[in-house]
Amino acid sequence: MKNIFIALLTLVAFTSSAQLTEGHVAYKIDCVSDNPDMQMAVSMLQGSTMEIYFYEGLTRSEMKMGTMMNIITLTNEKTEDFLMLMSGMIGKNAILTTLDEINKEKGETPEMEITLVEETKEIMGYMCKKAVLTAEDGSESVFWYTPDIKVAAKGQSYLNEKVPGFPLEYEINNAGFKMVLTVTSIEKKIKKAGDLFDFKIPEGYKKMTLEQLKGMGM
């Protein structure tokens, strides 16, 4: 009887500490601004959502920015492949490159100061910790992250590699514009991983370079 009890305790402890390495997380996005010049953009961003799929070092994010545009980003941590698909007001464009090239571009942007705060709250059954990211202009973004979900963040602009966990809620502040992402569902398995992580550029998309993307002000 004692051995059974110990075995059950061991199982519970293992289950509680096991990291989720495959799944699908969906968020709703709320955008607000006190700046009158941004009100049109805010209204166009209503109904925005984000979804993140992750599986064996593969990550796919789908950002639907209201009526403005959709951005799909696929990364492969093992092969270093990177694919971004953008569609909407600017047409259909694709960038197929490597994570190394993406990191070179990121190296040109100022690093954010990250402060890990001794504060916690529960989100969707996961105990989350707080991280505050401070930009050069003093604006702060708040991440509520859990170490119990492991996602390859490299190359994914919506995730920060230096935050020691996966964000289930975050608030991004930039020049009077605030974007709040709140998780709406978590699935622990994904279907049709082969289709989700296909790095071929779909028909109808125009291939462009990172330099061309920067030339468009993005």
Strand and helix map with partners:
Elements: H1 2-17, E1 22-33, H2 39-44, E2 49-55, E3 58-65, E4 69-76, E5 81-88, E6 91-98, H3 99-106, E7 113-123, E8 126-134, E9 140-146, E10 166-174, E11 177-187, H4 193-196, E12 206-207, H5 210-215
Parallel strand pairs: 6-12
Antiparallel strand pairs: 1-2, 1-11, 2-3, 3-4, 4-5, 5-6, 7-8, 8-9, 9-10, 10-11
Task: Describe, in plain words, how this protein is organized in 3D.
This protein is an alpha+beta fold and 218 residues long. The chain has one domain (18-215): outer membrane lipoprotein receptor (LolB), chain A (Clam). Helices cover 18% and strands 46% of the residues. The protein contains 5 helices and 12 strands. It has helices at residues 2-17, 39-44, 99-106, 193-196, 210-215; strands at 22-33, 49-55, 58-65, 69-76, 81-88, 91-98, 113-123, 126-134, 140-146, 166-174, 177-187, 206-207. A 12-stranded mixed sheet has the order 7-8-9-10-11-1-2-3-4-5-6-12. Strand 3 (58-65) and strand 4 form a beta hairpin. The longest helix is centred in the N-terminal third of the chain and has 16 residues, at 2-17. The radius of gyration is 19 Å and the shape is globular. 22% of the residues are buried. The model is unreliable at 1-17 (pLDDT under 50).
